Amino acid sequence: MHLPAWRFGKPYESLERETLVHFLTGEPVAEVSQVGGAIVGRDLQKAARARAALLAIDPEEIVERLQTAGNLYANGTVEVGGEPQSPERFVACQSATTGLPESLCRANMQKNMFVLSNMDRILDALSRGLDTRILWRGYGDEQRGVTVSYQAQAPVLGLVLPSNSPGVHTLWLPVIALGVGLVMKPGSQEPWTPYRMAAAMIEAGIPPEAIGLYPGATDVGAGILAGCRRSMIFGSAKTVDQYRGNPGVQVHGPGFSKIILGDDCVDDWERHLDVICESVAANSGRGCINASAVYASRHTRAIAEAVAARLGPIDVRPPSDGEAKLAAFTIPGAAKAIWGQIEAGLKAPGVTHMTAAYGDRLVEGERCGWLRPTVVHCASPAPEIARAEYMFPFVSVVECQQERMLEAIGPTLVCTAISDDPGFQAALIDSTLIDRLNLGSLPTTKLDWLQPHEGNIIDFLYRSRALQVAGAAGRPASAARTAAHA
What we know:
By secondary structure, the protein is α/β, with parallel strands linked by helices. It has helices at residues 37-44, 48-55, 59-75, 87-98, 102-117, 119-126, 133-137, 192-203, 218-227, 237-243, 273-281, 300-311, 334-346, 402-408, 422-430, 457-461, and strands at residues 2-3, 5-6, 11-12, 17-21, 28-33, 78-80, 83-85, 139-141, 147-152, 156-160, 181-185, 211-213, 231-234, 249-252, 257-261, 291-296, 351-353, 362-364, 369-371, 374-378, 394-399, 412-418, 434-439, 462-465.
């Protein structure tokens, strides 16, 4: 199979190609055409055509076509790389190059289908009930009779996509429904989701010229970030720091998501063990929404022992095994290097490895490696490992007094706070360190897609501004509501 670049509706086959291989056997799975940053720069000069193609279609029709695309993506056979691709074939290819078990690939397909199938509800929630025709026209009257105007900040959204988890693609799926095109650099090991999604969208009637796919090296990502006025990138904490303060780039990095047990509920911690374990281990712990730490003022060693007993025995299984729960690290030496970092962290005072009794955590294969679930106990928030996050089921159970928790947890993408204390809840709600807050016993991995994730995508793509329309008598139509100012 060969995956060509997709230059706003035109397939492009490059002489330079990257071969994707099976992470276990090394057998070729697909060839992917590679483009350079210069091609991206040239094509972005025509980016306005992508938005124009979308604006030529009624926004409600766009939503209906996206809902059709969601069904095609999850259940249909679509053409990818010049070949028919069934859902089963897609899952097999994605698992082969990413190391993700096939069962988890299927689960991520369902997440993406859910977002597309519920696009009307998601847009209504994110836009706070705004008629999307206002985004098409640029202005209009809200239901309360107030004139509002929204100005698109870019004709396309640039995306530098990762390879670690197919679930992140839910973040950009609403973009087409907002009248903005897509320019994507697929993940080097996971081009499958953007290619299949693009194919499903086009088959459902989304204009081909509204979508670009540009696989390539780092210069492609740099070209997208330089040429798109609005971009989204996924990366490490270093990537987050690099683009911090850049209003044109939305960065998605490590989540450092956490579970907090308040003093009023911690004595009943056993009731919440399922929530803790699901938060840590769902989707092989690869997501930024997986919990990397549990904070409590007491019972922390018992909590760590119980989580270790539940997760510690989980072992490596073949990717086709329906019970497989662990993804492989497909880059040679990556698993070993990460385990070396963890071993160094375990030497700090007050740190105890709670899963040591359940066998070696590092499993090395001929071409790849795995890390089995790892639980550590920290007697205080001081050790560096208490603030660590890794791309496998890893969690630190940290002992910390409740009054110190909010100053100790650091930046937190998702916080599940199990407490009925009104004062503590108010402090959690006020904390600017927490992005998504779950009040009560909810897994950190259970997201409500009717709420924004790391900012509202509409606020990122559009700017609210003032716009007045003169009435027939030369006065503003909203004169009764408008105060004159000298």
